[in-house]
């Protein structure tokens, strides 16, 4: 018993220090993003928290992600995000590190309720470790630059600023940077496109619903990519139509792998 207690205390200690380190890194990141007008201002930090600027605003709704002006500005914000150099490990370890952590937890789950056990067994029948290996191989074979990514660019993390609803631009702000890290560009944009599908305001179990017909069309994706590249690559708009088309089609492949 005492051994288990010691192990539990050691685990708690490790979790505490990991949490503290994550808080420090997130606060550093938050301060840099605020300085570059990509997030709310940071007024101070304290143990287990920080004091941020209050932004009069509302979160976007899922259906607003497809509005041309909204989509274009999200693309511009993401491009500015991706163009930053941050004082963190620049290897793209976050994505599969996070997935592996969750997979280990899933493989250890035990249920006493039979209905839950059936659902779990159905999930495990898909051979999730093999799926993880296949996904890693696919992503590593994809030509996608490693950039500083938001990693959770869904409507709930995009604010529409009060009083700027009818402005042509600079009416949005990205928030919630706890998942931000160096990652593959194609993942960040592709993940955002997948968020067009999901409505998290659904009131019944499982408290979200998916409409796969809402995934952006090729035209909508090209609109996003064009807005992204105009911000990310100076002179992109001055390229010939053929040169722009090559870049845009390469990005379509990168994003939709």
Automatic annotation (TrEMBL):
GO BP annotation list: phosphatidylethanolamine biosynthetic process
Pathway assigned to this chain's UniProt record: Phospholipid metabolism; phosphatidylethanolamine biosynthesis; phosphatidylethanolamine from ethanolamine: step 1/3
Protein name, as recorded: ethanolamine kinase
InterPro entries per record: Kinase-like_dom_sf
Source organism per UniProt: Engystomops pustulosus (Tungara frog)
Family per similarity comment: Belongs to the choline/ethanolamine kinase family.
EC number annotated for this UniProt entry: 2.7.1.82
GO function terms (MF aspect): choline kinase activity; ethanolamine kinase activity
Segments forming a coiled coil: none
GO terms under cellular component: cytoplasm
Keyword Protease: no
The entry's keywords: Lipid biosynthesis, Lipid metabolism, Phospholipid biosynthesis, Phospholipid metabolism
Gene3D superfamilies: 3.90.1200.10
Lipid metabolism found in the keyword field: yes
Pfam families hit by this protein: Choline_kinase
